[in-house]
Write a structure and sequence with these properties.
2 copies of one chain form a homodimer. Chain A has 154 residues and is of the alpha+beta class. The mean pLDDT of chain A is 95. Chain A has a domain of 104 residues: Thiol Ester Dehydrase, Chain A (Roll), CATH 3.10.129.10. Strand 3 of chain A pairs antiparallel with strand 3 of chain B.
Chain lengths: 154, 154
């Protein structure tokens, strides 16, 4: 089981970055459909999707939002972070099999409420911007290392 | 299997609303953790969560974002909607067992790109605002009724 260490408000520096990569599978999309309740056939039914302008199944836009939120919670600032707000612009569709890279960059720190702003970027395997946005979080006050368990839901 | 009809750009009216309700289960949170990759023990481990300021497991903030995106995609405007952007402010924690109501309200229509702005509100069972925000979508041009299948992921 991996251990994850957070970054406290005092440790964070403007320009600090974190990156994570994930290849999108149909199983991921099924999980997101079940979690969110968005069972739109554009995401789940290849025959339906073939008749849309996309031509094939695409991921839910908010799936990429979930990847951003995971990078904030697991990496930068990591465990102990309190999520205050997020803006997202969905720029390009994400297809099954695309490899997405989430890049977070610290752009502002305000000591009041330990508030930190992070630029959020999701790129596909062609280096194209899929999602752009900005996150507001309250960074942790204390250092912490947590043990991460990743059981399959069942 | 339920059928869902969409609302075209021309049909949508300023002030038009849609609402959906969901009670949050630990299984929902496990699904969202698997889909997003956010396996933070605050969401999944009651013993860990008991030692945090929250005192118990809470849902991922972006879980509520997923509920909003599902309401846009399934109800208003519904199938055929293209998601352009979303802002979210996370105001209160969501606990396991909370019953969340997503309220969408059409606040603006711009014929260019058939762009529609919707006010997004998530309330808990006490009527408190859990998440507020705004969505930008491209509404469908054509009426469509789709059949929704909701298999369990496995």
């Amino acid at each position: 089981m991996p251990e994850v260490r957070n970054h406290t408000f005092d440790e964070l520096t403007i320009g600090q970055q974190a990156e994570s990569t994930r290849t999108v599978t149909m199983e991921d999309i099924r999980l997101f459909a079940a979690a969110s309740g968005d069972h739109n056939p554009l995401h789940l039914d290849p025959a339906y999707a073939a008749g849309t302008p996309f031509g094939e199944c695409i991921a839910h836009g908010m799936f990429s939002g979930g990847l951003i939120s995971a990078a904030l919670a697991m990496q930068l600032p990591g465990p102990g972070t309190i999520y205050l707000g997020q803006s997202l612009a969905f720029r390009l569709p994400v297809k099954i099999g695309d490899t997405l890279t989430v890049q977070l960059t610290v752009t502002d720190k305000q000591p009041r409420r330990r508030q930190v702003t992070l630029d959020c970027l999701v790129l596909n395997q062609h280096g194209k911007k899929v999602v752009t946005g900005s996150a507001e979080v309250m960074a942790p006050a204390e250092r912490e290392t947590v043990t991460i368990e990743t059981p399959k839901p069942g």
